Amino acid sequence: MTKGRGPTNNELDDEPEVTMEIGFPSIVVVDNIPVVGQEKVEKLKTVLTKVFNAVGKVREFYLPVGKDNQTTGFAFVEYHTAEEAEAALKKLNGYKLDKNHTFIVNSYEDFRKYENVTEEYIAPEPAAFQATDNLRSWLMREDTVDQYCLRYQDQTEIVWNTTGDEPVIETKRTGWTETFAKWSPLGTYFLTIITSKGVVTWGGPKFDKIHRFPHPGVKVVDWSPSENYLVTAAPQYQEKDDPNDPQCIIVWNARTGVKLRGFLGSKDTAWPVFKWTGDDKYLIRMSEDTLSIYEAPSMNLLDQKSLKIPGLKDFAVSPTDHIISYFVPEQNNKPAAVVLIDIPTKKEKRSPKNLINVGDCKMFWHPQGTFLCIKAEKLNKSKKLISTDFEIVRLKEKDIPIDHLEIKEPLIAFAWEPKGARFAILSGEGPRPSVSFYLMEKTVKLLKTLEKKVANHLFWSPEGNFIVLAGLQNLNGVLEFFSVNDMETMGTEEHFMCTNVDWDPSGRFVASSVSFWKHTSETGYNIYSFQGKLLKSVMRDRFYEFLWRPRPQSLLPEKRQDYIKKNIAKFAEALEKEDKDTKIAERARKQKIRDEKRKAFEDILNRLKQRYDSESQERASLGYRPLDDKDIEIQEEWVEEVEGYEESPLD
Fold it and tell me: How far apart are alpha carbons 540 and 152 in whole angstroms?
């Protein structure tokens, strides 16, 4: 351009085109804001600006004031970018400022869009019906057979637990998962991991893909108890993560695949990060001197503040009720204590249980939420173990009383009976400890003590009564199948170097396995009846894990279940007949296979004999002399095979 004159048309053509901003994508409208007078407007504005600055840099915050000099209950928030406004929509919609004010956040563009909606109603076209697979199809079998997952080498199999010797494989896939697989708590979903990409859930009769949860670097996963939510963690983000959009720990909606919230992690983060209430309504996380309670599905911090608990060491959550128990060790001349608090009030359920001169403390909730066992190691002044004390809290009784039990021997294992009021304690020194069974009556009653047992683990049947006393790994896999009702051993087995014992969800079968993760030789699995009879033994090179598929809670009312248990003899005859018919059918199937193989072999022999006879003249012309009986020695060998047996009472 020449000085002193305006631009020519050609010069204007060379100027970059100015793009006008259309719309207001960086503005959000916030409803349900507290209504306050003029004197509190600035203070409220400061609080709200701080909240909205947490997801992006606020350019302008406008809080309208009405004619009565009070705020109007809504505000306009303008960010620098549309992306920041979008983050505010996702993270602050449903944000609970206090008990009476939960934000409703919308885009300003939505108001403009819906202003121009026509008054004429146009009915939408109904979408075509699309049938979806039944995610609980495996429960539809009349013989109520369960499934289990096998992982070995790069293979993953889903197998039916049928009575035959040969496994009935539902599906088998190569490279289905890179690290491990996991069933959801109710068995609806099967989860696999591809570390570089994330997590995938599968389900339905053909195990089709349900959802993919993209989380590069994922190493561990955890389900909420009612399988509504999934938590994934990628340790690579522990040190370098974005506070505004954390990637280390992510909570997902398991049913929709939608990311709900990310959380920061650290090297000290224990897994699982969260402990859930049984109904998935709350998830709780512990950090230094802090207990944080989040609400689902909003994932917002309850009451917008955490519980500050100086010295907090551990906590546990009731599997059935909204109750948290936490442990604080001795500090500043104050005794150690276990405290029970209610959610969401955060009020104590009863006065704290003080513990004098204790070291380690563990809390064991009963699966039905009826009891809480507090195990405390009592120490002398030299910090040596004097005894192990058990404080057993009765949650369902008036005033929540506590029973006391003391044992002088070191504790090895503690386990509640899943259904009932009994528990088992494994205690003692050396390779042959004692197993004691107790019953929660008006007081804690000792039922029986079994001396000198080769065991270091206790595994109750999910239905109760039966328990496996297991000596795993260095105790050579000794398994004792014990009936607590009858107080007698039903059977003993040994699975050399056994690393895992798992009951099936029905309580009828037990699987033991040797995992390649712990031993490099003789890996595989065994399946036993609940009485300890070996039913299957399978060896697999590089066998990793055996996973029973869980079952959801029965739909039968408790009264009906109790009736069936009390009158099991009425149903036993029909069930035994079904089992017998199944065995007969299995033997017939095997016999048919043998007959078919025999016939195929005989057909080959006949075909070769015909060929041999047709070539006899040619052999004779070549000087071949056929063998006679003197040249042949016949040896006979008899083999007996037991195809089945029946038990009959002696007269």
Answer: 7
Per-residue pLDDT tens over the stretch 324-344: 999 999 988 889 999 999 999
Instruction: Tell me the two tokens of residue 602.
Output: 């005989």
Question: Angle 475-480-486 (CA atoms, 0-180°, nearest 5)?
Answer: 150
Spatial neighbors of 478 by CB under 8 A, at least 6 apart, are 454, 455, 470, 471, 492, 494
pLDDT digits (tens, 9 = 90+) for 380-433: 887 888 889 999 999 999 999 999 999 998 899 999 999 999 999 999 987 789
Structure token digits, residue 356: 């004098």
CA 199 to chain centre: 14
* Angle at the Cα of 537 from the Cα atoms of 532 and 538, rounded to 5 degrees: 150
- Residue 650: predicted pLDDT: 53
Instruction: List pLDDT tens digits, range 107-143.
Output: 988 887 887 778 888 888 888 877 778 999 999 988 8
pLDDT score at 643: 60
Which pLDDT score, from 0 to 100, does residue 362 have? 94
For residue 620, what are its two tokens?
Answer: 């004779």
Mind listing the pLDDT tens digit for each residue in 523-551? 999 999 999 999 999 999 999 999 999 99
Q: CA 509 from chain center: how many Å?
A: 21
pLDDT value of position 418 = 96
Output the six-digit token pair for 163: 């009575």
Q: Is 89 helix (H, G, I), strand (E, B) or coil?
A: helix
Task: Name the residue type at position 507.
Answer: G
Q: Which two tokens stand for residue 291?
A: 């207990």
How many CA atoms, within 13 angstroms, populate the side-chain half-sphere of residue 222? 17
Q: Which DSSP helix (H) or strand (E) runs through 535?
A: strand 534-539
Residue 113: enclosing H or E segment and its boundaries? helix 108-115
The owner of tokens 């009935």 is: 168
Distance CA 504, CA 148 (A): 9
pLDDT at 177 over 60: yes
Contacts of 72 (CB under 8 A, 6+ apart): 35, 64, 65, 66
Phi, psi of 205 (to 5 degrees): -60, -35
Q: Quick one: how far is CA 624 from the chain centroid?
A: 74
Answer yes or no: are the C-beta atoms of 409 and 388 closer than 8 Å.
yes
Is residue 433 a contact partner of residue 471, using CB atoms and an 8 Å limit? no
In degrees and rounded to multiples of 5, residue 115 shows phi and psi of: -65, -30
DSSP of 288-328: TTEEEEEETTTTEEGGG-PEE-TT--EEEE-SSSSEEEEEE
What integer pLDDT is reported at residue 649 of this predicted model? 56
Beta-carbon count within 10 A of 2 CB? 8
Tens of pLDDT, residue by residue over 508-518, are 999 999 999 99
